[in-house]
């Protein structure tokens, strides 16, 4: 079995969201793609992923991209029946909803607000910041009375969301003022297998990148 995950070297995009691979006892052959020098636009990369996005996973010749699609694929293939992605329809639907909330609302609003500031020199937009706060209030509501984002078990929705929420640490968004989000954040950091290697190191690198750009 060959699993190759091609990751973003400078913009975390979820650190590539690989904590689930550790949870499944999978060893990924990680390859960095230098976006600054256009490695993602080279013919060999476009052959794998014509959309030239990162991360991309190649497993025995099968290529899949978008980190949340990668998460679901890995569990479906290598840990069918795992509580990380439950098979019971209602439980799975809830995990899927949280994944879609992450990509379509929470992370998307963060990206719309923060990345133009960091990479384009744009001023902070108060309206966009308010949208992020709205998203965090929703996440706080989802977590009311629950250990994890869909209930009592860690799922890939937590692994996806923790990567997004941790990115906020590089910004001026204070997500820890939301008590349920803060509690959940510390819980996932201490319980997700391989969290430090899969996410924490990249977070520090992302913070370093943001600081270096801000000092120019």
Concise structural overview:
This protein is α+β, with helices and mostly antiparallel strands.
Layout: helices, strands, pairs:
Elements: E1 3-7, H1 19-23, E2 29-32, H2 43-48, E3 56-59, E4 62-65, H3 67-78, H4 89-120, H5 126-142, H6 156-167, H7 179-191, H8 195-214
Parallel strand pairs: 1-2
Antiparallel strand pairs: 1-3, 3-4
Helix pairs in contact: 4-5, 4-6
Distance between the termini: 45 Å
What is the name of the CATH architecture of the largest domain? Up-down Bundle
> Based on helices, strands and strand pairing, what is the structural class?
alpha+beta
Determine the oligomeric state from the structure.
single chain
Kindly estimate the percentage of residues that lie in beta strands according to DSSP: 5-15%
The CATH first-level class of the largest domain comes to Mainly Alpha
- For the record, the count of structural domains works out to 2
Rg (C-alpha, Å): 17 Å
Number of strands: 4
Helix content: 40-55%
Q: What is the CATH fold-level name of the largest domain?
A: Glutathione S-transferase Yfyf (Class Pi), Chain A, domain 2
Strand order of the largest sheet: 2-1-3-4
Query: Can you summarize the main beta sheet?
Result: 4 strands, mixed
Poorly predicted segments: 1-19
Number of helices: 8
User: For the residues shown, what is the average pLDDT?
Assistant: 86
Principal-axis shape: globular
How are helices and strands ordered from N to C?
A: EHEHEEHHHHHH
């Amino acid at each position: 079995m060959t699993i190759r995950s091609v990751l973003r070297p400078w913009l975390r995009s979820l650190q590539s969201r690989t904590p689930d691979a550790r949870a499944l006892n999978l060893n990924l052959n990680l390859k960095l793609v230098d976006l600054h020098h256009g490695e993602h636009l080279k013919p060999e990369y476009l052959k794998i992923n014509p959309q030239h996005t990162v991360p991309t996973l190649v497993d025995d010749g099968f290529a899949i991209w978008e980190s949340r699609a990668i998460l679901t694929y890995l569990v479906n293939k290598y840990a069918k029946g795992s509580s990380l992605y439950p098979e019971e329809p209602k439980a799975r639907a809830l995990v899927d909803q949280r994944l879609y909330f992450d990509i379509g609302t929470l992370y998307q609003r963060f990206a719309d607000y923060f990345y133009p500031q960091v990479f384009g020199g744009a001023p902070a937009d108060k309206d966009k910041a308010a949208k992020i706060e709205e998203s965090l209030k929703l996440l706080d509501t989802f977590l009311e009375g629950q250990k994890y984002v869909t209930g009592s078990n860690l799922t890939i929705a937590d692994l996806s969301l923790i990567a997004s929420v941790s990115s906020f640490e590089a910004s001026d968004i204070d997500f820890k003022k939301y008590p349920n989000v803060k509690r959940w954040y510390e819980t996932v950091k201490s319980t997700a297998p391989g969290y430090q290697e899969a996410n924490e190191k990249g977070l520090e690198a992302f913070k370093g990148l943001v600081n270096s750009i801000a000092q120019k």
